[in-house]
Write a structure and sequence with these properties.
The complex is a heterodimer of chains A (192) and B (47). Chain A is mainly alpha-helical and 192 residues long. Chain A contains six helices and four strands; from the N terminus they run ααααβαβββα. In chain A, the strands form two sheets. In chain A, strands 1-2 form a two-stranded parallel sheet. A two-stranded antiparallel sheet of chain A has the order 3-4. Classes of the chains: A mainly alpha (192), B mainly alpha (47).
């Protein structure tokens, strides 16, 4: 939700900026536009849709996540010339790296789970198991490969919204805002 | 003319193509961030 908020904010800021400065927005074509929708389908089925996410085992969910991320890598690579997409691709690559290194799911430590779910019912999550129906798997620090790339970052406690995120998530957020911010007017060539 | 059809035609004229492309880019980025980098919030875990 927080990343969607960032993208939505970037979109609205771009529209308002263009309207206030009377700019003609220039938006580049996105190669392989069908691929972004295709890449989203396994992820939506495995994690987002309540009607289907309960039907998949942890192994099947991990396979779905790897398929989705692999297709997103192709999408990011095909759009690498668009401003902001290299940063998006780098964030994706970091997430893919840590997920692949940990059996196909994003690792999160028990301490981070306690921080984001302080009132979770006893037994509702366990080390070695997927966290609910999410893409995360709860692993001890000693069990986690590339811990610094995992969902180990937390928002300050004074922010009421509790999430754990990764370094890759930060780059993805920055890349998406940069991509939308870059939709400015065409540069005019000085005829003098 | 059907008022709904005329309204749709009016909107089609008013909405700039680049705004449509910007909207599609925002949707694409939203799908991208959902797939690539959704932070963990503990969805589906009983509290």
């Amino acid at each position: 939700m927080i990343l969607l908020t960032v993208v939505t904010g970037g979109f609205l800021v771009s529209l308002v900026r263009a309207a206030r400065r009377n700019w003609q927005i220039v938006v580049p074509d996105l190669p392989l536009p069908w691929l972004i929708v295709t890449a989203s389908i396994p992820h939506l089925i495995a994690f987002n849709l309540t009607a289907t996410n309960k039907l998949l085992s942890d192994r099947e969910a991990a396979v779905a996540l790897m398929i989705s991320l692999s297709l997103l890598v192709v999408f990011a690579w095909s759009n690498r010339r668009i401003t902001g997409f290299p940063l998006l691709g780098l964030g994706l690559a970091l997430n893919l790296l840590v997920i692949a290194a940990n059996g196909g799911l994003m690792p999160i430590t028990p301490q981070a789970v306690q921080a984001i779910l302080p009132h979770a019912a006893p037994g509702s999550w366990q080390v070695g198991q997927r966290l609910g129906y999410s893409k995360d798997i709860v692993l001890l620090l000693s069990q986690t490969r590339l811990y610094f790339l995992s969902d180990c970052l937390l928002l300050p406690s004074w922010i009421p919204y509790r999430v754990a995120f990764s370094a890759g998530d930060i780059l993805i957020a920055l890349g998406s805002v940069w991509t939308l911010w870059a939709t400015g007017p065409e540069k005019k060539i000085d005829s003098k | 003319m059907n008022p709904i059809v005329s309204q749709i035609k009016w909107m089609a004229v008013k909405i700039q193509p680049q705004q449509v492309r910007l909207t599609w880019m925002a949707i694409s980025l939203a799908l991208f961030v959902i797939g690539a980098g959704a932070p963990a919030s503990g969805g589906g875990v009983g509290e």
